[in-house]
Specification:
By secondary structure, the chain is α/β, with parallel strands linked by helices. The chain is built from 7 helices and 14 strands. It binds beta-D-glucopyranose.
Length: about 240
């Protein structure tokens, strides 16, 4: 299951292939995105597969031992709640929770653009916010929040997320400049060997990725929209939740 600020998506996953089994189910995130309302949607999606086994659930914020510690793009009432326990009350199986970008990164490292890549790899997801996942020789450093570094006095994701492009009606070249500046500041503090860019906007990668002038090589995520779901399942199967 992948809980996002705008949609809640789920599917059963073939972990040998790193692919969804059949069609994923997506339901709009209830507004306001209160925990109980979101849990009900998660239960509905899980129920539609008749699934009773382990479930991986992503959350768009810092999550430690099941507890939500930040909530930048969902209702603030999530703060301090135990998401794993909340979901477990409405589904039959046990639940592993993890940050959404961490899940996407795990999937890319195992099956996609980060396969067999050692060293320091950073996955960034551009969507409503900017999510980050950091890997050192394939091992996740959980809950990095590089979307919230300060860029010219402003929250990084406020200026450079995909939502900022839409909200401010920016062209791809205009937005690419924002992303470039964001990456510039990021690169001042971290020296990854590879950056993987994902999120819905990676479908249009040719319109903006070639315009970036980072010192770090940038590659486009391969699993696209499914990375969060695949990574959640992987985390559940291998107990990778923080
Ligand atoms: C949150 C991150 C999340 C990202 C993408 C950010 O605002 O702080 O935890 O991964 O959005 O959803």
């Amino acid at each position: 299951m992948d809980i996002g600020g705008s949609g809640i998506k789920g599917c059963t996953v073939d972990l040998d292939a790193g692919q969804l089994v059949g069609e994923r189910v997506r339901i709009d995130t209830p507004q306001p995105s209160l925990p109980e309302a979101v849990y009900a949607v998660v239960a509905e999606v899980v129920g539609s597969f008749g699934w009773e086994e382990r479930i991986g659930v992503t959350f768009p914020g810092v999550i430690k031992k099941g507890v939500a510690r930040t909530a930048a793009n969902v209702d603030k009432s999530w703060l301090g709640t135990n998401v794993a326990e909340g979901v477990e009350q409405v589904v039959p199986g046990t639940v592993t929770t993890l940050n959404d970008a961490d899940a996407a990164g795990l999937a890319e490292m195992r099956y996609g653009a980060g396969r067999d890549r050692d060293g320091v790899v950073m996955m960034l997801t551009f969507g409503t916010g900017i999510g980050s996942a950091l890997f050192v020789d394939g091992r996740l450093v959980p809950n990095t929040e590089f979307g919230h570094i300060q860029v010219d006095g402003e929250d990084g994701e406020r200026r450079a997320s995909a939502a900022a492009r839409e909200r401010e009606d920016l062209s791809y070249p205009e937005w690419a400049k924002r992303v470039d500046r964001y990456l510039d500041v990021l690169e001042a503090g971290v020296w990854p060997d590879l950056i993987i860019v994902g999120g819905g906007v990676s479908k249009k990668a040719q319109k903006w990725v070639p315009l970036l002038s980072t010192r770090t090589p940038v590659v486009v995520a391969e699993l696209r929209n499914d990375a969060g779901i695949v990574g959640a399942a992987l985390a559940a199967a291998e107990d990778l939740g923080p």
